[in-house]
Amino acid sequence: MYRKRSRAHVIAAILPPVLLAGCTALTAAPPTEPAVAVANPTVRPSAPTPIPAATPTKVYVVATSEEQVIGVWHKGSNHIRFDADGTSRQAYALDKLENDPIALSSYIFDGNKMVTVEVSVFGVPGCQGRAGTYELRLLEGGTLYIVTIKDGCEPRAKETEGQYEPVK
């Protein structure tokens, strides 16, 4: 026999699925996908876009000795030369490295880190003998990426860090 239901029973039976459907339309997209704004909760967003294949990361080897970095490198107009005797020179032009560098420093490798201390500076703020520690990454393709590990001399850290191309 047909049973008469009260209005409260009907609402209690219908309301949870309706609320649930409305909530799922407004759920946030996973962080790897762009969020989709839904103006009308009854309209479902289109299927998520496929996540693109991972971009290959740059492959590199961390330098552990002078022999790996000896030579002249540049990042724009900033040039740096690492010599076999443990000295380095920085200048804003290639022809200034020998006779008119902005900094002359000594460097040594301690495991996979390079520690540098300036010997003298010309026309730029000095670091008052504070050492800076860097990681020198030799990237695939022959470039050098210098990463600041710890340097209390901010001008040197800003000037030194970055990706350098070899000067040939």
The spatial strand order of the largest sheet comes to: 2-3-4-5-6-7-8-9
Please state roughly what percent of the residues sit in beta strands, choosing from under 5%, 5-15%, 15-25%, 25-35%, 35-45% or over 45%.
Answer: 25-35%
One letter per element, helices H and strands E, the order comes to: HEEEEEEEEHE
Q: In percent, how helical is the residue content?
A: 10-25%
Q: Main β-sheet: number of strands, strand sense, barrel status?
A: 8 strands, antiparallel, barrel
Rg (C-alpha, Å): 30 Å
Categorize the overall geometry.
globular
Structural class estimated from helices and strands: alpha+beta
Number of strands: 9
- Uncertain stretches of 5 or more adjacent residues: 17-38
Number of helices: 2
Number of domain units: 2
Global mean pLDDT: 80
Terminal-residue CA separation: 95 Å
